[in-house]
Amino acid sequence: MKSGSRALGIAASDGPKRSYLCGVVVRADRVVDGAIFETCTVGGTDATAAVVRLVTQLARPDVRWILLSGIAPAWFNIIDIEHVSTVTKTPTISVSFEESDGLTAAIDREFDGIEKQQRLDQYRKLPDRIERTIGDETLFLRFAGINMETATQVSRRFAPTGGRPEPIRVARMMARAHRRAIE
């Protein structure tokens, strides 16, 4: 992977009603090369559309990968990574940092009726989580438009000392700062 290869890291910071998403373009040599913001509804079902808008508005054909911080920002507002990858024509990797039994029980507990069924259907169609060791940390990856080997290589390449990939780390900091500035 060339040092100028770029990934778009996307992370969210939740407020009471809106979640503030930040997308940060980072080169493989860890130079930050752009940023953009978007919102979605806390407890809604619009996170996938918000991610697609963010990528589309960014309009950066040089971005080769999308790295998402998890798949359920904004209180179970699940991101359909297959849809994101297909619509944006960009391989998409969701990275989570903690072992988990999944979201099924929490969705069952927190929602009723159609809201529950929508989330369960969307959650169940996600690609399986694959455990990978990056440096000295264990990451859990879901990916679309890319194979497991490449998803692991991309995650490794963008993690400077192991652990959290830099595009996600920077996006998370910027999303939090943006939310604080607005609220």
Task: Describe the structure in brief.
It contains 7 helices and 7 strands; from the N terminus they run βββαβααβααββαα.
Give a description of the structure.
The mean pLDDT is 95. The protein is built from seven helices and seven strands; from the N terminus they run E-E-E-H-E-H-H-E-H-H-E-E-H-H. It is globular, with a radius of gyration of 15 Å. The chain is 38% helix and 30% strand. The chain is an alpha/beta fold and 183 residues long.
Features:
single chain, 183 residues, alpha/beta, 7-stranded mixed beta sheet, globular
The sequence of SSEs as H and E is: EEEHEHHEHHEEHH
Query: What does the main sheet amount to?
Result: 7 strands, mixed
- The number of helical segments is 7
Which parts are unreliable, with pLDDT below 50 for 5 consecutive residues or more? none
* Alpha-carbon Rg, integer: 15 Å
Would you tell me the structural class of the helices and strands?
alpha/beta
Strand order of the largest sheet: 3-2-1-4-5-7-6
Apparent shape:
globular
How many strands?
7
Quote the average pLDDT: 95
| Helical residues, percent | 25-40%
Straight-line N-to-C gap: 40 Å
